[in-house]
Amino acid sequence: MKKIKGSIIVTAVIICLILLIAGFGIFTYIQRNSSSLEASAGGSSGPGQRGQGSRIATTVRVTPVVRDTIENNVVINGDVMATNQVSIFPTVGGQITQTYFSVGDSVSQGTVVAMVDPSRPGQVFSESPVISTIGGTVLSNPVSIGDTVTAQTTVYVVGDLSTLMIETFVPERFSNAARRGLEAQVFLEALPGEVFEAVVDEVSPVLDPVSRTLRIRLRFSGRMDPRIRAGMFATVSLVTTTRQDVPIIPRGAAISTHGAWIVFTVDENNIAWRREIFLGLENEGFVEVINGLDTGDIIVSQGQNFLSDGELVRIVE
């Protein structure tokens, strides 16, 4: 009898444990389902609200796609030179006996600038004058009294400084764009912060076979600034291509990824969407959009590197 009662008690205990474990499992299941339903109700309000319940909106700056003119420039270095600059040679070889002008002096055409004694040992000849073939300013005087010269020795370099030009060399890949009348902007090291307008006035018909560059010369537009001097170092921004009334965006707004260019557009709900675009002409500040965007589209111009497709953004001015 005692054995039967013991078995009943053990069985009752086991049943109670089973019921307790089952009840705990059912309670846990109900709790999990309730949490999931609450999360679904509070965090999913449609595709336009993606990311609002899970993270803080990313701060960005935006700009509209506009239609404007864009220019492609090539920046090259050059030198300011006198438009008309010649070397003065003696008519005979001999010894320099007199020089009458120094660098910076003005001379007139036909003026005697130096004398050469063509005498040889045992022979005496009259001195021969060296005559300037143009009027202008003495730019250099490479010889001194007592030097022996030939008919191919430069005695003076004289230039007309009333008009100046810029000589520079265009790389081969831009040579087809170089033509007379092409506009350019000139920046001078001696006059920082100032911009001077210039126009291509002369284009060499051939490229230099060594440097693979094309020599061009530009003249300053408008009245000549007296502060500009021959010999100054110049930086030339040459407009090679111009396109008008095309969609443009800031160059920094486009992101290169996996061989393609993308931007992020922002809709009326402040959601950023990834958009692939195709680029055209570009310069230092802007780039032409050939396809992928429409005029008036709002794109992210700053902060786009940290965005994901469909992410909520906060726009700041």
How would you sum up this structure, described in words?
With 317 residues, this protein is mainly beta. It has four domains: 2-43; 49-69 and 244-315, conserved putative lor/sdh protein from methanococcus maripaludis s2 fold (Beta Barrel), CATH 2.40.420.20; 73-80 and 163-243, Efflux pump adaptor protein, beta barrel domain (Elongation Factor Tu (Ef-tu), domain 3, Beta Barrel); 90-154, OB fold (Dihydrolipoamide Acetyltransferase, E2P) (Beta Barrel). It has one helix spanning 2-43; strands at residues 58-64, 66-88, 94-99, 106-107, 112-117, 128-131, 136-140, 148-149, 156-171, 183-188, 196-203, 213-220, 233-250, 255-257, 260-266, 271-282, 286-291, 298-302, 311-315. A six-stranded antiparallel beta barrel has the order 2-9-12-11-10-13. A four-stranded antiparallel β-sheet has the order 6-5-3-8, with no helix packed on it. The longest helix has 42 residues, at 2-43. The relative contact order is 0.19. Residues 35-53 have low confidence and may be disordered.
